Amino acid sequence: MNSLSLITLCCVVVVFGGLPFSSNAQLDPLFYSKTCPQLQSIVQKVLGDVSRTDTRMPASIIRLHFHDCFVQGCDASVLLNKTTTIDSEQDAGPNINSLRGLNVINDIKTAVEKACPNIVSCADILTLAAGISSVLTGGPGWLVPLGRRDSLTANKALANQNLPGPSNALTELKSAFAAQGLNTVDLVALSGAHTIGRARCLFITDRLYNFDNTGKPDPSLDKTYLKDLQKQCPQNGPGTNRVNFDPTTPDKLDKNFYNNLQVKKGLLQSDQELFSTPGADTISIVNSFANDQNVFFQNFVNSMIKMGNIGVLTGKKGEIRKQCNFVNKKSSKLDLAIELLEGEDMVSSI
């Protein structure tokens, strides 16, 4: 098997060969090689500095990228704040009070704008930051296909509809991924991002005390692990305590997520479903990744690239936002004008 070597953060990171850079011919890892050659080093610097004091940030950035791509594609719509014309995805059920890293992406954008004004999209910054976050946590690196443009809209309703939940059954997870053109291997590989980061107790309280309204814990939880989680998440607690996804190496992107599933130590029900659903085709994939970290890394890279290509805007579609949280003034004025015209039409048709 051929391999590519990517020098990132003074380390040589091997990416397995045979992987397409992009399913979209308009995306290219060298897209900014002439217009903003400093891009990668700027993203690395800002994200690296933040991660030294906030070890959770790389996991939060990868999650932010995921929550962007699953709603009208990887177009930075998740970054848009609520306005008179924008119904922010940040207020959707899966996102409210849980998205992190928005300010970090803004800080990266500010630094990039200083070096290369009006060149790099927020969608590309977020995608590139997700890739660098993998490297910062000991995971694989890859040449990120670039050339995305930013959306002019957000879709809160679609965020509520498309984003999988922590209590989803395997059939629901497969359906959510299939709707984005992602297969079962992608589901298992991308779930491996839960080898880093934390989750709030409120997402697992039902598993610990009242699974499926039985008044008992989830039987798929290891009993010792269950007791440990109950100590961290008291039954009548506020639900705001945070628990490591991986109790062994919580800040390292490795294959331990899959080893944990094998011994009933998946934190979320949706994660444990990958291994504990009787007869599921995901079991053999989990076993494969648990047995060989290189196999997991290869598939994680492939699936991250594939996810990063969902519904991208290129060419003249969308725009290059000056600020990631707001559409450009020209677009905002045009959007407001259209809204006013539509309002007039509605009034005249009554």
From TrEMBL:
Active site: H67
Main localisation: secreted
InterPro entries linked: Haem_peroxidase, Haem_peroxidase_sf, Peroxidase_pln, Peroxidases_heam-ligand_BS, Secretory_peroxidase
Signal sequence interval, chain numbering: 1-25
Residues involved in substrate binding: P164
SUPFAM superfamilies named among the record's database cross-references: Heme-dependent peroxidases (SSF48113)
Location(s), subcellular: Secreted
Pfam families: peroxidase
Swiss-Prot/TrEMBL keywords: Calcium, Disulfide bond, Glycoprotein, Heme, Hydrogen peroxide, Iron, Metal-binding, Oxidoreductase, Peroxidase, Secreted, Signal
Classification via CDD domains: secretory_peroxidase (cd00693)
Record-listed E.C. numbers: 1.11.1.7
UniProt record, GO biological process: hydrogen peroxide catabolic process; response to oxidative stress
Domain of life: Eukaryota
Residues the entry annotates as binding Ca(2+) 1: D68, V71, G73, D75, S77, E89
Cofactor(s) it depends on: heme b; Ca(2+)
GO CC annotations, alphabetized: extracellular region
Entry keyword Ion transport: no
Enzyme class: oxidoreductase
Function per UniProt: Removal of H(2)O(2), oxidation of toxic reductants, biosynthesis and degradation of lignin, suberization, auxin catabolism, response to environmental stresses such as wounding, pathogen attack and oxidative stress. These functions might be dependent on each isozyme/isoform in each plant tissue.
Entries under PANTHER family matching the protein: PEROXIDASE, PEROXIDASE 72-RELATED
Family assignment from sequence similarity: Belongs to the peroxidase family. Classical plant (class III) peroxidase subfamily. Belongs to the peroxidase family. Ascorbate peroxidase subfamily.
Record-given protein name: Peroxidase
Species for this entry: Trifolium subterraneum
Taxonomic lineage of the native organism: Eukaryota, Viridiplantae, Streptophyta, Embryophyta, Tracheophyta
